[in-house]
What does this fold into?
Amino acid sequence: MSWPDKNAITQSVVDMLNVNMKLKAGEKLLVVSDYPRPEDWHKYSYLRLEGMLERVILARLVAEIAREQFVDTQVRFHPFLATGMSGKEPDGETASLMESADVLLCLTEHSLSQTDAREAATKANVRVASMPTFDHKMFAPDGPMAVDYQQVSADCRKFADLLSAADQVVVQTPYGTDLSFRLSGRFGQVDHGLMGDDQELWGNLPAGEAYIAPLEGTGEGQLVILAGWYPEMNEEMVLIFKKGLVVELQGGGKIGKGFSKLLNMNNDDELSSSRRNLAELGIGTNPNARRPDNVLEAEKIKGTIHIAIGDNIHMGGKVESDLHEDFVQPQVDLYLDGAPVILQGEWQI
It folds into this structure.
């Protein structure tokens, strides 16, 4: 582990605030970051705890750099107690602060993207960068933040248009994924990293994906997640879908056991069912994204797709949940209405 160096990241932070967030004089910038709950100190691995602490320090450094480099901007750093799951709502104070900023950076362990708090901020015209599990190495000159955002945007829109026009989707891989679902009536969306462009007020950083919410109840087949393609997962995991819901989970070691508990396959209550929902299809478009075991970066890798379970109401679906988890698929074949769009990770468009 290496702690972030302020001098090494200063120019990249300035570029992010100028290019991606379009920070202006007189605006209010809020940087939020979550720190471990008491139970996390016992439950999480040392590596994960170190990552959380490093991210809080990084968030404070980003706020310091912003305060020094954008002297006419009001900057606030706000650490808050972690929620414990991606998609779970933050505390009331944090949610209120998020809505009152002009520009918001969420350097968190657990994603705030699929939350009412993030959506309320967006509706209040806050430009939001959701950056869950962001690592300071992503600021490197050849890293996923240092890309041609106009090209990324063009690629995202090309795929989003294809998704909007499609009905039937098939996802296959040489390691066993074989999943189908429908999209009819849903619209592809873009995460191109240029907040405020064309009314796109929020997204991830690093950016680079087109995404869509599948029709609920249509997912059939299996999703195989390779070891190393989810944080701390060293054993292959398989999710079996029927009628749009996960009905069985196999493998995954310690990570798989954790998801089995969360998904609670033997319980059909509303919360458990919502967590098992087939929630998202995403297509990565960032040519500098490389790291497989960091979901934020991995789901942006050019040539991959990702499938999410849980909440999709914040991206045009109908299921609201306290969980949203993405699983990345390399070496993938993607078919839209029978036409190959990606074959073995190579774009066909």
